[in-house]
Amino acid sequence: MANSKYEYVKAFEQPDLLLPNTWIVVRIDGRGFHKFSNKYSFEKPNDRRALDLMNAAAKAVMTELPDIVIAYGISDEYSFVFHKSCALFERRSSKLVTTIVSTFTAYYVHLWASFFPETPLSAPLPSFDGRAVQYPSVQNLRDYMSWRQVDCHINNLYNTTFWALIQIGGLDAKSAEKELAGSLAADKNEILFSKFKINYNNEPEIYKKGSVVFRDIAQSKTQEENDRKRRAKARITVQHVDIIKDEFWERRPWLLSNKPGKIPKEP
Amino acid sequence: MANSKYEYVKAFEQPDLLLPNTWIVVRIDGRGFHKFSNKYSFEKPNDRRALDLMNAAAKAVMTELPDIVIAYGISDEYSFVFHKSCALFERRSSKLVTTIVSTFTAYYVHLWASFFPETPLSAPLPSFDGRAVQYPSVQNLRDYMSWRQVDCHINNLYNTTFWALIQIGGLDAKSAEKELAGSLAADKNEILFSKFKINYNNEPEIYKKGSVVFRDIAQSKTQEENDRKRRAKARITVQHVDIIKDEFWERRPWLLSNKPGKIPKEP
Amino acid sequence: MANSKYEYVKAFEQPDLLLPNTWIVVRIDGRGFHKFSNKYSFEKPNDRRALDLMNAAAKAVMTELPDIVIAYGISDEYSFVFHKSCALFERRSSKLVTTIVSTFTAYYVHLWASFFPETPLSAPLPSFDGRAVQYPSVQNLRDYMSWRQVDCHINNLYNTTFWALIQIGGLDAKSAEKELAGSLAADKNEILFSKFKINYNNEPEIYKKGSVVFRDIAQSKTQEENDRKRRAKARITVQHVDIIKDEFWERRPWLLSNKPGKIPKEP
Amino acid sequence: MANSKYEYVKAFEQPDLLLPNTWIVVRIDGRGFHKFSNKYSFEKPNDRRALDLMNAAAKAVMTELPDIVIAYGISDEYSFVFHKSCALFERRSSKLVTTIVSTFTAYYVHLWASFFPETPLSAPLPSFDGRAVQYPSVQNLRDYMSWRQVDCHINNLYNTTFWALIQIGGLDAKSAEKELAGSLAADKNEILFSKFKINYNNEPEIYKKGSVVFRDIAQSKTQEENDRKRRAKARITVQHVDIIKDEFWERRPWLLSNKPGKIPKEP
Fold first, then answer.
1. How far is B241 from chain A (nearest CA, A)?
2. Cβ A266–D19 below 8 Å, yes or no?
3. What is the ipTM score, two decimals?
4. 0.90 exceeded by pTM
5. Which of B4, B7, B12, B81 to probe the A interface (max A CBs under 10 A)?
6. Locate the Thg1 C-terminal domain: which residues (chains A, B, C, D) (predicted)?
7. Does domain B19-146+205-257 have CATH number 3.30.70.3000?
């Protein structure tokens, strides 16, 4: 039974190579996580265990894929950044995206019991979808990262106020929503402080800033190691810091240069 | 902190809609499963537990995604078929592929303990990559399915003989490979029978034919239910049968027509 | 001066192969032809010379590209159909589209003087843009063709009535537009007949039906010639006939089968 | 006759937007110009009239499409560059490529008689194909331009020597080819000089450097005009100069900045 008769079907596979010299961002999102978070009684507005599980899965992804230079997570989404010089899987979009989605999902499910020991998973299981986006310049990439972190801030300020109105203020969801309709950031800060004695600035950084995952390779010394090996071994750290201002990037030049100790250069 | 300044980065997301009226096949493959199967001491040439786990994950995917009409699995790969009329996720390629890959991975990891109770998973965890392929006609789709099933046969006959030479015949891998170099199907059948009294035809169907997963909706009666609901509730069956000949398809016209009881019509 | 240093830029060229086994339609449109038709005082509602020039250019395109099986033109647009089995230029989209657009433009400009001997072309010259669309089934392709021919009918009935109101009825453009706002086909027929004694059915077929260009190979005999050569030599005819009903296609089975004398088969 | 029944076919048109913030190069090539140049007895190795016609057509394209910032031509090919900020046609690839190909072809055919007054065009007419390529950085774009100019040099040195061997040296094509097989640039310079007293450096710049087409807007003054208008009115110049070294670009900062008088900034 020769297979040559059917092999023509391979010709229907179409190439999906991403453009060289562009920053590749793979963003994944939890599927139906609103429902999922209710099923497992996630704490509102933020469930620390759920965020820690997301971060643990993201660290595992970065450990298995040393080509990722930085990742950023908020709520049930995570963005993974491949350097513009990345040649992994010949830059095939499907391959890059599905590998990240699958690896992330595997660790999320596997590590669930460590973070939610009392509520075992049951069908339907958590899952994630994802897509790749290409950014030609460092400015575009940094604006993408800033976009996600500003979104984190806006959502968290809203959610913190919304749930304070419900959990402390005793409002129902509809009334809380109405109270906040059209409010500015200053208004929400004011509600939090005057009504609930909550100073938003004192909220945990992980909720206000999201989670930045990257390799801390300042201390690496042996210049003989090749970069990929070095990256694989470098300590991966999770921090909750500002990535909008220049300081974060200037103090960690290896993130954009993709070379330990090197300063990024454009164009 | 308004976000409008950064929102332009959304314009870099490029559409990836699949062509309407084409059959969509999403094929997923285990990443590095050769190494993985060694790590967990999979039985050779086939590990029944591993195949049953693949099938259980595939069934779960089909349960969560009623738009899938049929799936076919061999070894560490699985192909999922969406009907040409499928409108799920507006036919966005990334969304379709990542949802399947993620859901499959979630169940594979979650169900692992049921099939391998004595060997718990540890990092690096199993993961899968995937891609979508479009087939314009029923003939193309059936040829794709035939291609996979012929591949199953060719690989299984080779592996069965190869491992018999090693496990029963006492050869090492290199000698077994050499013995089989250039051999035809008839030669392998002959080696199996004359040397090891193995009649390949009597090997388990699951190894020879792979696994076909579909909804058995012949018995459905209530015509008022809408199709999607009906599909969701229909019993999903895993069978190890020939899908190359017409008979399989002619006896189950709802698979290609996407309507219970309806006969497919082309063009 | 070696070129190897710069050759990496070739890697930025991305493949654009169209899916196999789909009908390829390349539709081209005149750029800014409203203005263009005013500049050269095209007769309204239809300028026979302009349509004849379009048809002459389309015939030339089909002569130079024997892989085109049929073309259909109305006003300043033309659709060229490649058979689903077409392998020209490896089915590269850019190559197919630009070759048609360029060849069409070349003949349009070159033949202009034959159709408009008294009004020589001057800058800005006429030009056309184009795109390729893939249709998986014969039904989709025929619906595309029907779509264009129904459009021809709708536009021509409107334009015929609109210009009768202006040219015979003495209305200005605004009043004519107002008169026709919300009118049905029957209303326009009635206006034409009662006000201007024009029976729309007696209007020239070329205006009502558009132009269908194809090879008339019913008479071909020598079975030894290969198909491409045969196609290249076959007489190309321009007709103004109905392509919505089955009759046109059933009487010319070679158009869909892509083989002289063969009946098309699907799937 | 309503058209709604068929309008679904529009859904088969797939978007082809180019990535924002990338330099777009549209390169067009003469189709079958080897044969074409023989048919019209082009002079070898270079036909000045043919190059002047190419340049005239390129100038016309740039006049009609002010979004093009620079173009570069050699032999029967031309590359047109849109600035990375270009938003013309929403950056739709087909639209950009076909508009350039069609406009170029129109002028090539229309202007033919001015450059070849004694040899009127006849079918098959000259035509061009084209494709778009995206370059993320100024460096990539400049390397593309350098690649084409180095190619011009390599081809012209070869052709000059090859045709000298034939036209002056009396060799036939095969012998000339053999003579040059494996030769380096220095060898060809030596052959030209020692055998034919030709100093390659003294060859016309248009043959050695190709043709660079751009707007000379150093003199523009009225700052109130908007850029597009200004570009449309600026004098388009054709020069035969080095575009590999920095000097060309540094002296004309408006080419990369896309703003008269502005210096380009990256990233």
1. 16
2. no
3. 0.93
4. yes
5. B12
6. 139-245
7. yes
